[in-house]
């Protein structure tokens, strides 16, 4: 399926609460059904929020297979395939392709701080594997910023690079990217927000939706707000967003996905909000903040 406009959930991976924290397949299936029922426009699995960096290839296959079996042909499935080593990226993309995912997302290589020319080569080499590819730019996590002109160069030069997840929170980048695109690329490129708090403004400036953490907790509400914004009805979008607005910031009171998994357990969406080491469960001093945001959204009593 082609990648959609709208709300794509950056899906968490539920784990069993005791070491070795195995994947809770039943909880994952329940989450997938929740998003199908809620009208979520797309699924992004095995990203940062899905804790893919601490999973084996066998575990990745389990998550992809579970998702494909339940959702293939009904909702687009985007698989995170980003890491430092291009050979590992290639292996992950080939796995996603063989297991019938719809597209892949590749993050800028973290820690090593490649220059812009190396980023172009990294993404184009990944796109050579034949899957539709989303470039994920999140300098706050990776330590490297893929500049708007570099993103546009990728989009202009490789037909398989079809979208960008821009997680800087700087909505001015939409215009900067678009003004560097060829007419052909401008017609086909999707620009997704990776920052829930600025998503509605991002859409008002020409963006196409979000790959969202908030959508884990409030899938229907956020999908409706985003799609109202895409229709140009910003008044309705803001009204729908108001009850969940605090979630956009409070779900990041500690490193993602610690708060969102705790919130999902508190809202009874998953049995356990545990994260795998080196992360851990939410620190108790943050409980009241996240609970208050859940109550404001009417997700708990």
Question: What would you say this structure looks like, in words?
Answer:
The protein is α/β, with parallel strands linked by helices. The protein has a single domain, classed as Alpha-Beta Barrel (TIM Barrel). 44% of the residues lie in helices and 12% in strands. The protein is built from 14 helices and eight strands. It has helices at 25-38, 57-71, 86-98, 116-127, 139-142, 148-157, 173-178, 183-188, 199-204, 219-230, 234-241, 245-250, 258-266, 287-296; strands spanning 6-10, 42-45, 77-80, 103-107, 133-137, 161-166, 190-193, 209-212. It has an eight-stranded parallel barrel with strand order 1-2-3-4-5-6-7-8, surrounded by five helices. The termini are far apart.
Briefly note the structural class of the backbone.
Answer: alpha/beta
CATH fold node name: TIM Barrel
Distance between the termini: 38 Å
Helix content bin: 40-55%
Radius of gyration: 18 Å
Mean pLDDT: 98
DSSP helical segment count:
14
The CATH class, by name, is Alpha Beta
Q: So what's the overall shape?
A: globular
Number of domains: 1
Question: Largest beta sheet: what is the strand line-up?
Answer: 1-2-3-4-5-6-7-8
Q: List the helices and strands in order.
A: EHEHEHEHEHHEHHEHEHHHHH
If classified by CATH, what would the architecture be? Answer: Alpha-Beta Barrel
How would you classify the quaternary structure?
A: single chain
